[in-house]
Amino acid sequence: MNFHQSPCTYTGEVYLNVLDLDRSKQFYTEIIGFEILEEEENKVVFTADSKTPLLIVEQPENGIPKEPRRTGLYHFALLLPERADLGMIIKHLVEHNVALGASDHKVSEALYLSDPDGNGIEIYTDRKPEVWSWDNGKVAMSTDQLDAESVVAESEGRVWNGLPAGTLMGHIHLHVASLSEAEAFYNALGFEVVANYPQALFMANGKYHHHIGLNTWHGGGDARPSENSVGLQAYTLIYPTESVLKEAIGKVEALGSKVTAGVNRFNVEDPSGNRIILRVE
User: Fold this and answer.
1) Is residue 3 assigned to a domain?
2) Can you tell me the distance from the alpha carbon of 217 to that of 200, in angstroms, rounded to the nearest whole number?
3) Residue 231 in 3-state DSSP?
4) Which helix (H) or strand (E) holds 221?
5) 3-state secondary structure of 148
6) Tell me: the pLDDT tens digits for 88-113?
7) 70-84: buried (b, 16+ CB within 10 Å) or exposed (e) per residue?
8) What are the residue boundaries of the VOC domain, all occurrences included (predicted)?
9) How many domains are there within the chain?
């Protein structure tokens, strides 16, 4: 099953603030492997398939560095189509001396790194859903050592040529002030808890291992970042139909959240101030 298309509700494009647009443009094209879809004086739109925006990076006026111990982005996660794609990007990143973390999560195999401003990035591939282990509505995940040699071996004979066209925004992981408030909010938006970690929840729609990660690893009660701070500006949730979106809007409004209408989209903030764009597929 594809967990990033109808009938699921899933994560779409992510918007980031950065300090130096030229530096970010170089990093996201040369290191991560995006193409540039659109470019303005203070904004760049990145894509993997020459048509679908995945990451929008903006340099705000009077930007300030990422503030510590605030709500906002822990990482955005790029989902690659095949394990061999992950093997190729491992070789590419090692060749460029990029500092990497890596984990085997049982449901997926993942790399972790940061952009020049400290914005967290995960790049991963999923194991087949048939091998995921579910018990009473919860999926088994762990943080084990990645068998990087095996992953790289999958890519033997293949050459890195940037992100493959089938790359998706697999999930978003956020720092929040309160897990209970965040859980109620995202449940109203159509997501259910599928895994619990210490001080973290993982939520999904349609039995994915997670579309949204939430944590209070700073200790909880974090303040919101400044408007012009490096970090998450907004991210997108994509709904399969107008009726499903309308139902979700009604539920979050019933919780007291303010939803505003834009052009072909709605805007809302979670209880920790993380901005979300809601739209239909």
Assistant:
1) no
2) 8
3) strand
4) none
5) helix
6) 999 999 999 999 999 999 999 999 99
7) bbbbbbbbbbbbebb
8) 10-126, 168-281
9) 1
> What's the start-to-end Cα distance of the chain, in Å?
17
Whether the per-residue pLDDT at 148 is higher than 80: the answer is yes
Burial bucket for residue 130 (CB in 10 Å: 0-12, 13-18, 19+): exposed
Q: Which domain holds residue 169?
A: 10-280
The CATH number given to whatever domain includes residue 48 is: 3.10.180.10
216: its two tokens:
């209070």
- Contact at 8 Å (CB) between 10 and 211? yes
Amino acid at the residue 158 = R
Q: Per the domain annotation, does 4 fall within a domain?
A: no
Question: How many residues can be counted in the chain?
Answer: 281
Tell me which residue has tokens 């822990």.
74
Q: What is the pTM of this model?
A: 0.98
At position 138, the amino acid (one-letter code) is K
How far is Cα 70 from Cα 50, in angstroms, rounded to an integer? 34
What does pLDDT average to over the chain?
97
Question: Looking at residues 128-139, what average pLDDT do you find?
Answer: 97
pLDDT in tens, 219-228: 999 999 999 9
Is the residue at 207 inside a domain? yes
Q: What are the angstrom distances between the C-alpha of 130 and each of 11, 134, 267?
A: 22, 10, 35
Whether 1 has a pLDDT exceeding 70, the answer reads no
Residue 205 resides in a domain: yes
The CA-based angle 109-86-114, given to 5 degrees, is 80
For residues 190 and 1, the model is more confident at 190
**Residue 274: HSE in the Cβ half-sphere, 13 Å Cα cutoff:** 32
List, for residues 234-261, the tens digit of each pLDDT value. Answer: 999 999 999 999 999 999 999 999 999 9
Residue 85 has pLDDT above 80, yes or no: yes
Is residue 234 within 8 Å of 57, Cβ to Cβ?
no
Q: Write the single-letter amino acid at 17.
A: N
